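Human: Here is a favour to ask of a fellow structure person. Comparing notes only helps if you start from a blank page. Give me a protein, with the fold worked out from its sequence. Please set it down just below, with no commentary around it:

Assistant:
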Amino acid sequence: MPHLTPDLTPAERRVLMLMLGGRNTAAIARELCIERSTVKRHRQNLYYKSDTHDVAALVHWGRGWLQTEQQEIERALNVTATRPV
């Protein structure tokens, strides 16, 4: 079963971010200078890792994933900022 907040590859992150911005497969391929088939493969990986089966569900999941990632970064920055040098 996929993790609640799975690790995504840098390429999967880029594709997901562009999907969250409303881009379709062709637009993502053009923007990243990759083949449509590569975008589709990353999207399939994202479906698996998010346990979703369509774009709407993946985008909904992606918004939550992004929020979780941002919170983890903020926590890491706060821990670093409070450590004595």
About this structure: The radius of gyration is 15 Å.
